[in-house]
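Batch job 17 of 40 flagged for manual review because the log was empty.
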Amino acid sequence: MEIVPSTLIALIALAAMLVRGPARSVGVFLALTPLGAAAAFNLPAVGGATIGVADIAAIGLFGLVCLTPAGLSALVGSARPFGPGFWLLLLAAFCVVAALFLPRLFAGETQVFAISRSANSDGIAVHDLGPTTGNLTQLFRMGLGVMVFAALATLARRHPDPARIVAAMALATAIHAALGVLDVASAAAGLPQLLDPIRTANYAILADHYMMGMKRMIGGFPEASAFGFYALGLFGFWLAYWTSSPGSRVAPWMLALSAVLLLRSTSSAAYVATLAFTLTWGFWTGAMHLSAQASRRGIAMAAWGALALWLAAVALFGAYQLADPVTAFLDRALFDKLDTASGVERMSWNAQAWRNFLDTTGFGAGLGSVRASNWLIATLGSLGAIGTALYLAFLAALARLPAPRGPGAPEGAARVVVALQAGCLAMLLSALLTHATPDLGLFFFALAGLAAGLSRGALLESRPVSAARDAGSPRLSVQ
């Protein structure tokens, strides 16, 4: 085990979580999620695998929930039949089988773009299918996602406090922005090593990449695309929350901040996903507000949003035609992306992942065996038809979560549930463009867990009798 400077951050975070208790540690965990390149420690004996600071925090949070009175039964309650937790639990069980047995069952039957470090020592190339360290590391990452979902769903169900979740999201946004600004400012000042203490993971850290003379912002992440992916989740949350919360003071500032981070990331996937999400969210919001309960603010937002999008498109087209720097930037970031060597290579990954799905007769080559550049194709190639169906069932159950607005429901719970769902949607749309593996990341599962838990907790709060029967233990047991 290799100790690194950011190990201290992990130790401080664990100590803070122990002192604050699980219910008040949600903010601590979310505050660590922007540190995507910070390792708690590295494991040279396991192919140089990295255990991140947020990974350790996820395990710590799950452990704290387990140690609370009736904690294990409460965790089981987060997997109610046919809810998001139920399908995620089935998916996790299938992932174990897919990671440990499918690469052996279909060994030599197909070739893959492997994701293990040993297989990639000479670059990303096609290899015969077989067990690798990538199967174990990807299984670990999916397991972390399940743990985060279960822990946060349990805490949000027992303590349905929308204000606490909004405050935690604001903290995560501020830290993400601060690291992004520090990244660019330190490079401009000739001190690019300033963030080295939190860039300790065994990843390729692309901190010295520029686009049209502009430093690509990566903040606490290893590359601009990962930075933009995280910022997109924040943007989705704050856009939905701001739309439904006219009296919020923090929402407009956080929305503007996350939008600036998205633009400054120079990630083509983030740009396209932002456009797709904005259109999707706008159409959905407009359709919902056509009902008899439509609010003036909702209708006004849909109308002004459509107008702003049209004006932005006209301005962008004009700038593309008339301003050479804008033309060069957009060509490199968007329009010529698929013609580059990177674009061609990523398309070959997708083609090979689809071939893996066919060669294994729809069972998949195993979790951690396949690299692609599209979340759906990566999932099909890795987990096959069964695993993909379970994953889609989880996402569908997440999308169908009710947003309780009853008289007993906590104030603002419905708005926060919808905002959390919007954050998940934004990240999923981005993953459909570039994600290499089935794992959608800790932040996605954190948003999903909070949405599921808050939805159920608010529903129980509005039905006190059912709440007492469902909880089975005093709410103060997790304080």
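Reviewer: the log was empty due to a logging misconfiguration, but the result itself is present. The two ends are 34 Å apart (CA to CA). Unflagging and moving on to job 18.
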